[in-house]
Recover the amino acids of this structure.
C-alpha cells in the first residue's frame, strides 16, 4: 500500500512537471508567434521602401518609394523621376 501511495505521488509530481513544461512550451510558442508577426510587419515596411524594376521586352516598369528620387536610363534616354510608379517604352 505504501509503495502504491509513493508511486501515485511520483506520478502526480511528474504530471505537475509535465504541466509546467507544457506551460513553458506554450509561452515560448506564443512569444515565437508574436516575434514572427512583428518580423512580417517589418518586412512589409521594408518592401514599401524598396525600388522595384521590371523589364518586359521593350517596356520598363519602375516603382520608387516616397521621398526618393531616381535617374532612369532606358532606351537611350535619361529621365529624372520622383516617387511613384512609371512605365517606360523604348
Amino acid at each position: 500500500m505504501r509503495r502504491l501511495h509513493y508511486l501515485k505521488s511520483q506520478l502526480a509530481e511528474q504530471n505537475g512537471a509535465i504541466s509546467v513544461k507544457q506551460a513553458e512550451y506554450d509561452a515560448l510558442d506564443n512569444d515565437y508567434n508574436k516575434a514572427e508577426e512583428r518580423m512580417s510587419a517589418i518586412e512589409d515596411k521594408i518592401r514599401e521602401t524598396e525600388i522595384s524594376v521590371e523589364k518586359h521586352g521593350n517596356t520598363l516598369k519602375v516603382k520608387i518609394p516616397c521621398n526618393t528620387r531616381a535617374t532612369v536610363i532606358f532606351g537611350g534616354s535619361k529621365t529624372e523621376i520622383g516617387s511613384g510608379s512609371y512605365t517606360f517604352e523604348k
DSSP finds one helix and five strands in the chain. The CA atoms of residues 15 and 21 lie 10 Å apart. The first strand starts at residue 52 and ends at 56.
